[in-house]
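Hi U.,

Before I forget, here's the chain from the pilot set. I'm dumping it here mostly so it's searchable later in email.
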Amino acid sequence: MADEPLDAAAPAASGADVGAGAAAGAAVKASPVLRPRREAFEHGLLPIPKLVFPEGTLTQTLAQMKERLAAGGGARAGAAVLAEALQIPAEQAALALGTLAAVLPVEDPALGEDGSGEADVRDVLLFLYIQSYKRLVPRAHKDSPAVADVWPSTSAFDGYLSALSPIQLVRSNSRRFMPSQTDEEAHQLSYLQKHMVNILSLLADSVDGEGDESMVLTTETFEHLGFLLQFSEGTPLSHVATFFANSDPDMPAAPVPVAQVHDWIVQNIAASLENTADKSTAKENSQQSASDPDVTMAEAVTTTRIQSSSPTGTAVRNNQGHYRNTTFVEGFSKTSVVKQASDIKGHSIKVLNCHDSVIYVLAPVKYATVYGCSDTTIVLGAVGKVVKVEHCERVQIIAASKRICIANCRECIFYLGVNHQPLIVGDNHKLQVAPFNTYYPQLGEHLAQVGVDPNINKWDRPFVLGVVDPHDSLSHPAGVSDVQAESATCLDPDLFTNFLIPSWFEAEGPTKYNPFTLPEVYWASQRKKHVSLEDIQKNIQELEIDDSRKKELAFALHAQFKDWLYASGNIRQLYCLQGE
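Structure:
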């Protein structure tokens, strides 16, 4: 699935007018704006201590690592070489390469989409370098006592590392004070601006010369920076860089001094940061509108809302919820939302801060994030790279994906069809996993489109790392010692049920059943339930009771069933089914 072009942005601060003619009304072409690749920072960081080097020795350590990797495998490194160089277990090295493969901008055939091959050493160095990145912390609240009054500081699930449950943690840093998408991008750009000279020195080749002229970058190496940076139109870096842009396509471009590349990148980052600051200032001084691409996500949600009070087949539309190449579903409560392929802009979706709802994402995407949700069922149809679920309570996630990462969640059930082991990190409690349990007419097509293999399902083989995430100071303060995270248990087969997705729009497709094979123990439980239900129906029909007693029995069964619907959280899905 190819990346869709990102949105055009405002001119860089230093951009010159292009094509400005003497005639009135001559067009001025906007300069491309340099942006961070969010995928690398959002899905490419692993809480493995030996991947995170102290900032003071980071460059020196990675320079030595470069020599060891080159000695072990030349220009490429597999899991065995990486494990030896980093002194980590082979399975952690394989996880690192698999994660790298999942966040590369373009698939590397030698590495493979699952990371089982050998990675380019330059990509490995960039991947290891950004493991030193620290996520942006929430802005301080101006009235902390007021927040404490609204959101208690204690939790029914008190753990030894955190006084707050995941939802309380998110709510205590309410959306107004959580970093926005723009804030996070600016933080990532500032990080790259600070470290770019060291990053370039790691990638550079030595040649004969004096001073700055002795370290150069080739066009090929320069393009590897696309792992971290991209232009808003999705144009390759070398097509915009003046020192490579006019090269003869039939002849290799001459290497360029590192100092020249550094100056060009830093200037573009500065222009982008200035552009972001100007937009932020303008927003603070004027009313935000739905057409502003940087409106807060709580005010910018495009969804199809299915409500029990709406006539069958009708849909209610909200204002737009897209930011660059990401679609948002945010802030819904006590409702049902559906996203189909036609509703998705870009290749990523984020479900944020939804409560007591059912969210259906029936579309193929590359990346999916679920953050800060509670008492909600979320269906993710086909995710070709990574699903990340973080800071959620009492959610049910039904996901078909290549990979999934679960962090800081409590009392959640994950119905999974995953090609790789579920990664569990952070302060989790009472997690359960189960096999994938649903389908919709286009699911098979969507799985094929993003490359998820329904014949491989590792739902019951979680890969557990530590509780403390060195990239995140939100969940755990600095100085807390690390221990292995709590793993997930397999759902009791007797509690397993199939999930029925309503066909609101009468969509047609070839998928008529769950494409993932159900383990025999779960099949047996399903068959037993089916037989038991038939026996109950037969026994009721054979009861020799008068009509009034039958009505009493029917009323009692109805009341018990209604109580179960509310207790299990399935009442919302029933409303959806009634709307068909």
